[in-house]
């Protein structure tokens, strides 16, 4: 029984090391995905980022639980091991909930992007300064995704002309050709679909990351509770062993003291 308990102990210790490593990987992955969504927050909205933010928070919490699990496993206190197992269950449940939430966002992201993008486009049309920060954002997004407006060049009808970024030439972007007055090839597609596809791809990555973390970290639940059960059985075995030893000490008492006393040897009378 002792060997079995030690085996579970070392398995749980190894799991806690892997648990902490997965938290570090989860922190880096979720932080990168938040960045990928954050840079286009004006076009796709901030609601799309919330599942990734929750995943980042769970990575920080997971590091703390891994440290707690390491300490409680070394102490071999059953109640502490059980509490650690419950905390791991909560982490796995929240990560799986994050996966479900991300899939819901993935399914509804087109509606959110369409409203956010249209509102931001109408706001930018009112700007007359080509160096305005909102105008520059639209120039860069149209050059990057090779698009024009929300649904096409016709969105600029009210303004009377299309920006040269619809031809792939951004006035303030040094990575592209200099600003020119000639626009020989105009992008015909709008930016709604490319941004929609980009956001869906990033949110899907968030969902898959959350699902993978939940599946991998769920293995620790079984190891932790098996360790708690093994500690309980070892304690019972120790109590049974102590009881049997105590009973053995009183099972066969020494009856030599209860034997009849022997008569003293006869002696001659003294005169």
TrEMBL record:
<comment type="similarity">
    <text>Belongs to the tetraspanin (TM4SF) family.</text>
</comment>
<dbReference type="GO" id="GO:0005886">
    <property type="term" value="C:plasma membrane"/>
</dbReference>
<keyword id="KW-1133">Transmembrane helix</keyword>
<feature type="transmembrane region" description="Helical">
    <location>
        <begin position="12"/>
        <end position="38"/>
    </location>
</feature>
<dbReference type="InterPro" id="IPR018499">
    <property type="entry name" value="Tetraspanin/Peripherin"/>
</dbReference>
<protein>
    <recommendedName>
        <fullName>Tetraspanin</fullName>
    </recommendedName>
</protein>
<feature type="disulfide bond">
    <location>
        <begin position="148"/>
        <end position="167"/>
    </location>
</feature>
<dbReference type="InterPro" id="IPR008952">
    <property type="entry name" value="Tetraspanin_EC2_sf"/>
</dbReference>
<dbReference type="InterPro" id="IPR000301">
    <property type="entry name" value="Tetraspanin_animals"/>
</dbReference>
<feature type="transmembrane region" description="Helical">
    <location>
        <begin position="50"/>
        <end position="70"/>
    </location>
</feature>
<keyword id="KW-0812">Transmembrane</keyword>
<keyword id="KW-1015">Disulfide bond</keyword>
<feature type="transmembrane region" description="Helical">
    <location>
        <begin position="203"/>
        <end position="228"/>
    </location>
</feature>
<dbReference type="Pfam" id="PF00335">
    <property type="entry name" value="Tetraspanin"/>
</dbReference>
<feature type="transmembrane region" description="Helical">
    <location>
        <begin position="82"/>
        <end position="106"/>
    </location>
</feature>
<keyword id="KW-0472">Membrane</keyword>
């Amino acid at each position: 029984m002792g060997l079995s308990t030690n085996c579970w102990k070392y398995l749980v210790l190894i799991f806690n090391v892997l648990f902490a490593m997965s938290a570090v990987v989860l922190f880096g992955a979720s932080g990168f995905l938040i960045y990928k969504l954050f840079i286009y927050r004006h076009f796709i909205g901030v609601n799309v980022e919330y599942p990734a933010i929750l995943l980042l928070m769970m990575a920080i919490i997971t590091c703390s639980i891994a440290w707690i699990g390491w300490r409680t496993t070394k102490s071999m206190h059953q109640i502490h091991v059980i509490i650690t197992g419950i905390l791991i269950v909560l982490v796995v449940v929240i990560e799986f909930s994050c996966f479900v939430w991300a899939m819901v966002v993935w399914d509804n992201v087109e509606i959110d992007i369409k409203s956010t993008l249209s509102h931001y486009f109408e706001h930018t049309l009112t700007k007359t300064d080509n160096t305005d920060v909102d105008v520059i954002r639209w120039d860069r997004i149209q050059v990057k995704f090779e698009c024009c407006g929300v649904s096409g060049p016709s969105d600029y009808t009210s303004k009377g002309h299309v920006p040269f970024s619809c031809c792939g030439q951004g006035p303030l972007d040094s990575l592209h050709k200099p600003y020119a007055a000639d626009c020989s090839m105009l992008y015909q597609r709008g930016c709604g679909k490319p941004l929609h596809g980009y956001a869906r791809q990033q949110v899907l990555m968030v969902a898959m990351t959350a699902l993978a973390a939940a599946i991998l970290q769920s293995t620790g639940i079984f190891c932790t509770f098996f360790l708690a059960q093994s500690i309980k059985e070892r304690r019972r075995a120790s109590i049974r062993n102590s009881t049997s030893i105590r009973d053995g000490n009183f099972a066969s008492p020494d009856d030599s003291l209860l034997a009849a006393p022997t008569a003293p040897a006869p002696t001659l009378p003294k005169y």
